[in-house]
Amino acid sequence: MSASPDEGEEKEGPVIRDKRRIDPETGKVREKAGEKDKSAAPAAPAGEAAGAAGGAGDGDAAALQEQLAERLDDLRRLKAEYDNYRKRVDRDRVAVREQALGQVLSEFLPVLDDIGRARDHDELTGGFKSVGEALEAVTGKLGLERYGEKGEPFDPMVHEALMHSLSPDVTETSVVDVLQPGYRIGERILRPARVAVADPDPDAEPAAKPAAGDDTAASDAADESADESDDSGKSDE
């Protein structure tokens, strides 16, 4: 009886590959084939590794320095913008305060004018005097300042000239009379001072000053006249 050709050959069964990460027998983590290859690869020489690390470190340090310089420039620019903003806000706050105070105090100027006229005519007495002085004190605390005096130089920025004349007593355009005082708050003019001004008179001759000899002669003449009057009085007696 002849044997079949398949009987002399081994039959191949199914192939089972265990890909479990944990070895069920030892309980340890199995290494993959790629990891074995990497671990088996020869290590680079120490000099080459140090050189590569040093080159990478220098490049990173330069990049960090550049980034740091950019951030510092950004901070300086931001600080300058904030400082300018704060100064602008402070300036606007002062301007708004002066404007609001000016609108309120402008309504008191006619009352202050009446108080000033009453003082000039010696009519500021009694209770009216106390009220007037209290009102002037309160407005002064709020920053209201009165200006305009006789003899001060004329300034068209703060004075309003209503009358003009020539005078030999002034050497420059000056205020010779204050018709209505001016008021201001800080640099803000609420009302200019209305004044009469005078310019130097070009035709007026300067007053001649007596010389020292003339003064002596005049004093001697006065003494002689005084002696003569005394002598005449004695002769009459």
Please explain how this structure is put together.
The structure is a single chain. The protein has 237 residues and is an alpha+beta fold. The chain has a domain at 107-200: Head domain of nucleotide exchange factor GrpE (Nucleotide Exchange Factor Grpe, Chain A, domain 2, Roll). It has 5 helices and 6 strands. A 3-stranded antiparallel beta sheet has the order 1-4-5. The protein has a 3-stranded mixed beta sheet with strand order 2-6-3, with no helix packed on it. Residues 232-237 have low confidence and may be disordered.
The percent of residues in helical segments reads 40-55%
CATH topology of the domain at 107-200: Nucleotide Exchange Factor Grpe, Chain A, domain 2
Radius of gyration, whole Å = 54 Å
Provide the CATH architecture of the domain at 107-200.
Roll
Structural class: alpha+beta
- CATH top-level class of the domain at 107-200: Mainly Beta
Specify the number of helices.
Answer: 5
Low-confidence stretches: 232-237
Largest sheet: 3 strands, antiparallel
User: Mean pLDDT, as a whole number?
Assistant: 78
How many strand segments? 6
Order of helices and strands: HHHHEEEEEEH
Shape summary: elongated
Assess the beta-strand content as a share of residues: 15-25%
The CATH homology group name of the domain at 107-200: Head domain of nucleotide exchange factor GrpE
How far do the termini sit from each other?
A: 209 Å
Give the strand order, joined by hyphens, for the main sheet: 1-4-5
Subcellular location: Cytoplasm
Protein name: Protein GrpE
Biased composition (Acidic residues): 1-10, 221-230
Family: Belongs to the GrpE family.
